[in-house]
């Protein structure tokens, strides 16, 4: 059925009603809405929210980004090797098309392996910027993950970064991490040397 009524003039609302409308959005919907245009991005950035931070897990073939609030997990973005065509949308971030499938507050991110770092970095930067929240923690699982150090600069402002693996990181790799991250960042290396 086709509607003959004009579209709702969302952008013509005064700030307080617009803020109230956007606060009723789910976290994932806000993130999606912010990718529609520069204006949408600015509006989402100006919206007050109750999100407290982002937690990240990253390993050889997988990453997850979890947006938390005082009420718990609000939205989860995770990489997926399974490629679906149902309910798929594309976001343009940092010049890359990012294929997303959202179900409730869980979003699967599909990407070609050669674009993994760029897409991960773009998604983290975008979520942190528009929701204006800190990266609370990052957990790296380093087993069979040769290039994990390439991801450290994109999460260097995290409050806590942990590295877990079957073998200890070299002293040189540990020093590289210490030199790149925020000095207030709590670092954990397991196993210890």
UniProtKB/TrEMBL annotation:
Q: Where is the F-box domain?
A: 7-54
Looking at the record's lineage, which domain of life comes first?
Answer: Eukaryota
What would be one Pfam family of this protein? F-box
Tell me which InterPro entries the record gives.
F-box_dom, Zygotic_Embryogenesis-Asso
Full protein name = F-box domain-containing protein
